[in-house]
Structure prediction request, 202 residues.
Amino acid sequence: MKRTREIEKESEIKSAIEELSMLIKLKPTGDNHDRTTVHIPTKPFIYVCSLVIQVLDKIGPTMTVLRQDIDQNIQKEANEGGARKGASCSKASVWLARSLDFTVALLQRLVADPGQEMEKLVEESYNITLKPWHGWISSAAYKVALKLVPDNKTLINLLMPKDETYDTLKEDMQTLISLLVPFLEEIHSVLILYGLDKLKST
Prediction:
């Protein structure tokens, strides 16, 4: 598959930047969004989430719970389509969006303070994005995973492609953040529109 080969040639971050940039170029102009036309762009949404999974795979067993959760939600979203096609798919959309919220929060903190302990960066990101929606089972699983988070240098090395400098990686992360934030704002506005924004887990 062409897209798989392309991902192998470049970093997940660069691939996500390319996908989101393409989405912006193809997005219709004008202010003609109403309740009947508002939707989540499923294919780009799933693709960007799948890139997050590849990053989690690089980190190793530390993020297994989050990785499995994202993967299951991608399968639901891909198999069932848009938010109007059932509760299962609607929940998948909500949790995929929140997983990307967590990713953005973590990248923002990593860019702002690369010297900060990774465990603290992950905890801060979790507290503002996922924790408000997690019940005690999910919170307990997170606490176990937090103990296994790699250090900053290890994570940065995993994210950085060969022959690339940290400055280039930092620039890529900032670009990705600048594209993901408005993309997620649109997705959350759709979730609010359909009354899905308050959904909690066990």
About this structure: The radius of gyration is 17 Å. The CA atoms of residues 157 and 164 lie 10 Å apart. The chain has a mean pLDDT of 78.
